[in-house]
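This is your field. Pick holes in the following sequence-structure pair:
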Amino acid sequence: MTSPATVAEIAAMGRDGLVAHWVALTGAPPPPRTSTPLIRRVVAFEIQARASGGLSAKLQRQLDALGSDTSRQGSARLEPGGRFIREWNGVRHVVEVHEDGYRWKDQSFRSLSAVAKAITGAHWSGPRFFGLAGPRS
């Protein structure tokens, strides 16, 4: 790539040209199965950011800190024999973890979300309902 493409040129490019620009800008190919519209947006953003001097040092530090944040952990491993206790509308619900899923009121469920739906009558994220995940931001 000798000179940066304009946004109009990027809009008219096919996938092969976009991938070539991506590689030239980042030094690596896009992740597998990245959509052409997303590649187009990333290439256009990178060209515009570089033309305007790139990201500020402060923003780059913030992004680096977010990328290296290891405080977020995956969900805890739920061992068979474990129990969830949740009060809903004044009723205490106990859900047991089994090898093949969950049991609540002598019924088997494949997911916590299915248990949460049986309890509430509405679609819920099971991990969120039982306090394993925080609310969406």
Notes: The chain has two domains: 7-58, 83-129. The first strand starts at residue 83 and ends at 88. Residues 7-58 form one domain.
